[in-house]
Amino acid sequence: MARGPRYRVPLKRRRKGLTNYYKRRKLILSGKPRLVVRITSRHIIVQVVGVKPEGDVTYASAYSKELETKFGWKAGTKNTPAAYLVGFLAGLRARQKGIEEAILDIGLYSPTSGSKVFAAAKGALDAGLKIPIGEGIIPGEDRIRGEHIANYAKLLHETDEEEYSLRFSKYLEKGLKPENITDHFLEVKDAISKSFQEG
Fold it and tell me: How confident is the model at residue 86 (pLDDT cuts 50, 70, 90)?
């Protein structure tokens, strides 16, 4: 371990590999709220966060668990369609609070083209938030709607019924055939939109 009178101990979150302070400083200096996307082992969290001298302030947030409890989502809470819907929900809540633009904060995730963090950003964009992001890095509409899941489910259903039942057991328990995820996605997106029109 480094020592000496001029050695400075790195900040705790830097030591643990939880925060890249160089990247965070650049985001803060933009002066815009951050669209923070985080993926846990089971869920997706999207928040619109601002910075004040006393610390971060959360203006709007959405969690993939809410898709199940409030909007009837029956598919996985960590897949690409769920990421888009959570971003869409967070974006609508931010717009309701008068926030018009944000800058994407993906934390320590690698900026991989078509990844879930960019699906969440696309959801917020479609909700009306202005976010500087290249079109080429956003997942395609077919992936956002879950067509890749539906196609894989159809293939498994035709070739290996046992594997199909095992892989999609949670979907089937909730009464959703994974082949129909695209229609289900559109229904839930419509339900989210209507909840803001009514409110």
Answer: very high
Q: How far apart are the first and last CA of the chain?
A: 57
Radius of gyration for the chain, computed over Cα atoms and rounded to the nearest angstrom: 19
The string of pLDDT tens digits covering residues 148-170 is: 999 999 999 999 999 999 999 99
Q: Do residues 86 and 48 touch, judged by C-beta distance below 8 A? A: no
Cβ(104)–Cβ(80) below 8 Å: no
Beta strands in the chain (DSSP E): 34-39, 44-52, 55-63, 103-105
Q: Token pair for residue 38?
A: 């985080």
pLDDT of residue 9: 60
Three-state helix/strand/coil letters over 68-88: HHHHCCCCCCCCHHHHHHHHH
131 and 101 Cβ atoms separated by less than 8 Å: yes
Q: pTM, whole model, 2 decimals?
A: 0.87
Alpha-carbon gap, residue 139 to 184, rounded angstroms? 19
As a whole-number percent, the residues of the chain with pLDDT over 70 amount to: 84
* Structure-block tokens of residue 181: 């995820």
Domains of the chain as residue ranges with CATH: 26-198 (3.30.420.100)
